[in-house]
Design goal:
With about 230 residues, the chain is of the alpha+beta class. About 20% of the residues lie in helices and about 30% in strands.
């Protein structure tokens, strides 16, 4: 079976629908205290989106990886710290992503991988980070089994971006991303099948202060959708 072609420009893939029919997450469920309680309860949870779909390279064994889902305390509520990858990378060039990467044997846990990679990529020191739990593993088309590690981040902190991997870092209100009306469903059709993915476009100021669109899609959007389902789960 042939692997699906890569999606070179997700913005031009047709939007099949929006998910405004789904309920938003009440504000009280988006507090740091409630997040700690929900992850501590460890209720059984089946993710809506376990992966991207068929992998590009079926001969390559999936590699374990982890990302940090950093939820930053702000006066107006929690926000999600995201990065934009540099354009020259082999995998996920130019895409919006969580800080993270491949697990190393010495890490010992997904949380250690996520914390180490976050320090390396954006310079966020561990003393500002409180890990509260993990979401189910997500399998990417590029053959990574990714554990999303959810954490609360306390300001003030300074970032120091790895300019080789990270073009910029920015924040999006958690309430915006947990509102399904902002979740768009795309269908990419190719010879022999189709692939569906979510996007959550966000308009905000860039590093230069000028407004721009951050097109959150693919694995990052899917993991955010799984977070939405987790927080909506009773």
């Amino acid at each position: 079976m042939l692997a699906p072609p890569r999606i070179l420009d997700p913005r031009v893939v047709p939007v099949a629908g929006h998910d405004g029919h789904l309920p938003g997450i009440p504000a009280d469920r988006l507090s740091a205290e409630r997040l700690r309680e929900q992850f501590a309860a460890a209720r059984p949870f089946t993710p809506e989106m376990p992966g991207d779909g068929r992998r590009f390279d079926l001969a390559r064994e999936p590699s374990p990886a982890a990302v940090l889902v950093p939820l930053v305390h702000r006066p107006e509520g929690l926000s999600v710290l995201l990065t934009r990858r540099t354009d020259h990378l082999r995998d996920h060039a130019g895409q919006i992503s969580f800080p993270g990467g491949r697990s190393e044997p010495e890490d010992g846990s997904a949380a250690e991988t996520a914390l180490r990679e976050t320090e390396e990529e954006v310079g966020l020191a561990r003393r500002h980070v409180e890990v509260v739990g993990t979401l189910p593993v997500y399998t990417t088309v590029t053959s990574y089994t990714v554990t999303p590690v959810v954490a609360l981040v306390t300001p003030p902190f300074a970032l120091a971006l790895d300019s080789f991997e990270v073009a910029e870092a920015f924040e999006v209100p958690l309430a915006y991303l947990m509102t399904p009306a902002h979740h768009r469903r795309h269908v990419f059709t190719f010879d022999g099948g189709e692939r569906q993915f979510l996007s959550m476009p966000w308009h905000g100021p860039g590093a230069d202060g000028e407004p721009r669109e951050y097109f959150i899609w693919g694995a990052t959007a899917a993991m955010l959708r799984n977070l939405y389902r987790f927080l909506a789960h009773d």
